[in-house]
Amino acid sequence: SSGINAEWPLRPGKDSGCLLTLANYATSTEPQGQLNALRAISTCSGKPENCQILHDNEIETTIMTVLGGEHPGVLAQACLTVSTMVANPLVKETFTKIGVIQALMKLIGHEDQTVQEMSTLSLANLSLNSKMVCLDIIQDEHVTQLVEVLEESTSPRILSYLATVVFNIVKFETLREQLVSLNVMQSLSACLTNPDTDVCIAACKALAALVADSSAREELLKTNALGSLVSILKESSNKEVLRKAAWTIGISVANEEMAKELNKNGALRVLMDMCTNDIQGVSNLAVVALEKLLHYDLAAKYWHMGTLSQTDVVKDGFYDTGAHKPGDDFKPIKLLLDRKVDNKRAVLYVSSIGADPEPADMKSEASTTGSTTNVKTGRGTAKGKKPHKAEEKKEEVPEPEPPKEQKDTGKPRVDSSLREYIEEATSAVGPLPTQAEQIAALSVYVSNQMGGPVTSIAALSYDLHIAQIKADLKTNVIPIGFIKRGIFYHRALLFKVLADRVGVPASLVRGEYNRAWNEVTLVEGGKSKHYLVDLMWEPGQLLEVGSHGAGVYKKL
After folding, report:
1. Segment 438-475, tens digit of pLDDT
2. Rounded to whole angstroms, what are the CA distances from 377 to 442, 484, 487?
3. Strand partners, 524
4. Whole-number Å distance between alpha carbons of 95 and 113
5. Among the listed residues 105, 121, 189, the one whose alpha carbon sits nearest the alpha carbon of residue 155
6. Quick check: 435 and 504 in contact, CB under 8 A?
7. DSSP strands (E only) in 232-365
8. E strands of 248-388, at which residues?
């Protein structure tokens, strides 16, 4: 048997005696004879026509008998023979019917590592593109052992083979949930920290296939998988590992929670760097992952790109840290809250509801001491025309009282003022008949909440006002509704928040030197025209984008 070569074809009907001899040796009680016979069978089956003849002579039954033995070397060789032969669809089908899956599943927990390696290799090859095999694996009584070995094994081969089995299974949507329920996410997460490249690649593929399921995404967040994926991008020099990790991150970003968890682990910075990477195939995947990350984390998007589109809806939890500078990292809100008060630009935070009820003594006093406005009085005209003179009068704005002392909760304050703004704007602006009237009314309303029309920024003394709020709250993070004297970027953010709630499409654009503005689109004469909303000098006025007035508004 040791002299058989895969290139030597078996002759149908003429080599049956040889095959019978091999089968007899394979099922003998002499381990060396079994090994030689199994090696010969495995070698022969490497040639498709030989494999077909072996199948016609029911060699699968012989190998199944051997899989019930005890000798580790023989078991390992039998598993390898199965792995080799299942490239033939008829052989795979026969093995499946006679119970090879159940035999192999018992062996993945074998005390001999080589037996484990060869049995998991066979399962990987058998489960490829076979829903029947995958279903047998899921329903086997030893399936929990598969997950345990995946988490505990130190063998790179076993880990990569089992991760491949998982990948093969989860390609079938109906089987994903069953696999997730077995805590496989934790096992795959552990594989991501393995130094072996094959293990990392196989684990990435399996995770990317799994996270298409919502329950899998929930389980993924309970592991450190996202942090491990970011670490791979930071530390690995292997092109294929980088490709698979970037691809997996791109697939994983399917909601805001996933995006924020990735950003908390530094994904934004590393993906930004990778977008300029000249490694073929890596930068493209990084671009896709970055776009999805920014789509679901608008705070990061505004920090990185300096603009939010009309379709980007600002929700509670959004915050504006200012423009990103070269070398800066996007910082999670928890880190910003933990910083001591300083003289740097305040972080603007959006929070109208919050997770916890707001105690009565923690409500923003400014919500009852600031100016009040009849929203419906705000009218304006496009093309740079001024609002009616009667509407230009600025109400006297009482000095805002500082917010009352609060217990340090480690969370941003709930903004009762913003909550009131949303209620007022929704009830008053929403019913107005035209979008132009809605925009004009809302711009006047926003201006009046932030100090009214401005003739001189210096006279507004907004910086002292902001410094006082920071000192009172003992944090650099200020809810937007607490600000009663604000300039361009304060007003633009408030306008965007309220416009999104009311249903008025508006973008938010960051300029230089503390400038920010909103742009809206109106249809006039069957054509779309784009306007910048004046919230500072003549609130209610719309300045056509590209006009001299719009240019002046954007610059010092």
Report:
1. 999 999 999 999 999 999 888 889 999 999 999 999 99
2. 10, 20, 22
3. 527
4. 23
5. 121
6. yes
7. 307-308, 319-320, 347-349
8. 307-308, 319-320, 347-349
